[in-house]
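Inverse folding, one chain.
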C-alpha cells in the first residue's frame, strides 16, 4: 500500500510537470480525456471530465467534479472529498509520507523504499520545439514534442502552446522547482528539468500524451477551455470549514 500511495504522489508530480503554466493567480478551465486502457488485469473505461484550477506563486487548487486537490509549494498535498466533507493530507516527499502513514519501517524496509522511489524519481525531460504552427480555438500555437522518462515508464506529449497569452514562465519554474526540491535525489536533475520546461513558450492550449507504463499504453489529452488572470478567491487554497480529516490510506 505504501508503494501505491507513493506512486500516486509521483503521478501528481508528473501531471504538474506536464502542464507549463505561469503562476500569478491564474484561473484555468480544461477538458481532460483519458482513453480506455487495461492495467493490472483491470479494464478502465474512457473518461472525459472538466477541471477548474486556480494557481498562485505558492499553491495550486484543482477541482474535478466532487473531488479537489490542493498542492502547496512545500510538497504538501491535500485531497478533498466534497460529498463526504473529508480531506486527506499527504506530503509528496516520500520519507515524510512514510512517517505519516503511521507504519514503522525497519532499516531494511526503508532501504527498499528509498531504492523504489529512487527509480521512480529518476525523471528526465526533453523538449523539442518544432517549426509547425496552427490555430487552435482561436490561439496561434506552436508545436513542441516533450519526452518524459521515469522509472515507471515513458510519457511522450505533443504540445501546442500559444504566446497570445502573456505569462511569466520563470514564476512557474520557481514553483515546480520548489516542489521537486522536496524529493530526495532530485537535486542533480532539477536544473535540467526546469531548463527543458522553459523551452515551451507561453500557455499550453492542447497537450496530447501517450504514457507507456508497466507494458501498457495510456493515451490522454488536456485542452484549454478558459484562461484568465486575477486575484484568486481568498478561501480557495484553504481546507473548507467543517471538513473532517481522514488518515492516510483509509
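Residues assigned per position:
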Amino acid at each position: 500500500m505504501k508503494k501505491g500511495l507513493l506512486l500516486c504522489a509521483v503521478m501528481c508530480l508528473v501531471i504538474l510537470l506536464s502542464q507549463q503554466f505561469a503562476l500569478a493567480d491564474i484561473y484555468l478551465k480544461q477538458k481532460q480525456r483519458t482513453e480506455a486502457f487495461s492495467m493490472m488485469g483491470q479494464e478502465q473505461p474512457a473518461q472525459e471530465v472538466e477541471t477548474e484550477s486556480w494557481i498562485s506563486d505558492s499553491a495550486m487548487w484543482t477541482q474535478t467534479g466532487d473531488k479537489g486537490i490542493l498542492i502547496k509549494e512545500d510538497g504538501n498535498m491535500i485531497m478533498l472529498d466534497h460529498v463526504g466533507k473529508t480531506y486527506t493530507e499527504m506530503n509528496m516527499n516520500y520519507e515524510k509520507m512514510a512517517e505519516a502513514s503511521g507504519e514503522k519501517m525497519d532499516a531494511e524496509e526503508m532501504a527498499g523504499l528509498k531504492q523504489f522511489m529512487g527509480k521512480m524519481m529518476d525523471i528526465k525531460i526533453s523538449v523539442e520545439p518544432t517549426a509547425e504552427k496552427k490555430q487552435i480555438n482561436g490561439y496561434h500555437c506552436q508545436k513542441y514534442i516533450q519526452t518524459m522518462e521515469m522509472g515507471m515508464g515513458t510519457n511522450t506529449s505533443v504540445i501546442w502552446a500559444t504566446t497570445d497569452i502573456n505569462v511569466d514562465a520563470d514564476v512557474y519554474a520557481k514553483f515546480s522547482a520548489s516542489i521537486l526540491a522536496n524529493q530526495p535525489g532530485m537535486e542533480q536533475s532539477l536544473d535540467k528539468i526546469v531548463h527543458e520546461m522553459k523551452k515551451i513558450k507561453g500557455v499550453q492550449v492542447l497537450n496530447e500524451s501517450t504514457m507507456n507504463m508497466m507494458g501498457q499504453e495510456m493515451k490522454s489529452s488536456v485542452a484549454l477551455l478558459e484562461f484568465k488572470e486575477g486575484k484568486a478567491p481568498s478561501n480557495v487554497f484553504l481546507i473548507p470549514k467543517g471538513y473532517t480529516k481522514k488518515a492516510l490510506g483509509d
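The chain has five helices and 14 strands. Residues 1-7 have pLDDT under 50 and may be disordered.
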